[in-house]
């Protein structure tokens, strides 16, 4: 199964660390975050990979060139950021007409991706994608989802002051070929996956909840927590 890793962001909340380092290469226990993604996904039988670049792209290019995974990575540079949905649409052919993985590679994620894929394969027939979820202790800073008894999303709210729970969107998605076809058609002009796409598919998104560590390392506090492993 192929994967697109979104890795082009500025990481502004992590400054000054990201003044000279792209967010996808910030170190977690001495290892670049992107290296951890490539290793864990490869071990789960996922690949090859497409990685988009923009901010400090030359550093990402140098990292990939020296990586043991370099033969499995295609880099796509964006002169202007396309947005999370825009990058997906522009590169949907990479999946070759099959189901594929889309992840925000600036998160730190220790989830079991084999189990995630298995859940996707067992999803209800009405669902066109599977979203990874996790329990958060800061729900107002996350996208929060509500589920029915089958584990299907029936509501999603993006970073609201009084969220309806603490089950958060983990920004990792297994996308069906049918969904990708729609992205290339009626949704080809949308830019943001979280705010413009997910709400259109409420009732058709299955979920897999991980109990393993999943963090947006976008702040110094979260980065420290990831390095502490808790």
What tags apply to this protein structure?
230 residues; alpha/beta; Spore Coat Polysaccharide Biosynthesis Protein SpsA, Chain A; seven-stranded mixed beta sheet; two-stranded antiparallel sheet; 13 strands; 25% helix
| CATH homologous superfamily label | Spore Coat Polysaccharide Biosynthesis Protein SpsA, Chain A
Strand order of the largest sheet: 5-4-1-6-11-8-12
Cα-atom radius of gyration:
17 Å
- Rounded to the nearest angstrom, the distance between the terminal CA atoms is 30 Å
What is the β-strand count? 13
Q: Could you say which structural class the secondary elements and strand pairing correspond to?
A: alpha/beta
| CATH class descriptor name | Alpha Beta
**Averaged pLDDT:** 93
| Structural shape | globular
Proportion of strand residues: 25-35%
CATH architecture: Alpha-Beta Complex
In CATH terms, what is the fold-level topology? Spore Coat Polysaccharide Biosynthesis Protein SpsA, Chain A
| Total number of helices | 7
How many domains is the backbone divided into? 1
Largest β-sheet summary: 7 strands, mixed
**H/E element string?**
EEEHEHEHEEHEEEEHHEEH
Q: What assembly state would you assign to the polypeptide chains in this entry?
A: single chain
């Amino acid at each position: 199964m192929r994967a697109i890793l979104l890795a082009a962001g500025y990481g502004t909340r992590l400054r000054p660390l990201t003044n000279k380092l792209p967010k996808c290469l910030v170190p977690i226990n001495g290892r670049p975050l992107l290296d951890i993604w490539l290793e864990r996904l490869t071990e789960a039988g996922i690949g090859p990979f497409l990685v988009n670049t923009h901010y400090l792209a030359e550093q990402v290019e140098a990292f990939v060139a020296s990586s043991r995974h370099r033969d499995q990575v295609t880099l796509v540079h964006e002169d202007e950021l396309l947005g999370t949905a825009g990058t997906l649409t522009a590169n949907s052919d990479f999946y070759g007409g099959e189901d594929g993985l889309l992840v925000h590679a600036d998160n730190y994620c220790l989830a079991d991706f084999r189990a995630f894929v298995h859940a996707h394969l067992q999803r209800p027939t009405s669902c066109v994608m599977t979203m990874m979820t996790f329990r958060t202790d800061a729900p107002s800073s996350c996208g929060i989802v509500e589920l029915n008894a089958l584990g299907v999303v029936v509501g999603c709210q993006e970073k609201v002051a009084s969220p309806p729970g603490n089950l958060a969107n983990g920004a990792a998605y297994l996308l069906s070929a049918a969904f990708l076809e729609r992205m290339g058609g009626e949704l080809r002009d949308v830019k943001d996956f979280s705010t413009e796409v997910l709400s259109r598919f409420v009732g058709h998104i299955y979920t897999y909840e991980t109990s393993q560590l999943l963090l947006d390392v976008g702040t110094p506090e979260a980065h420290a927590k990831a390095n502490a492993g808790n």
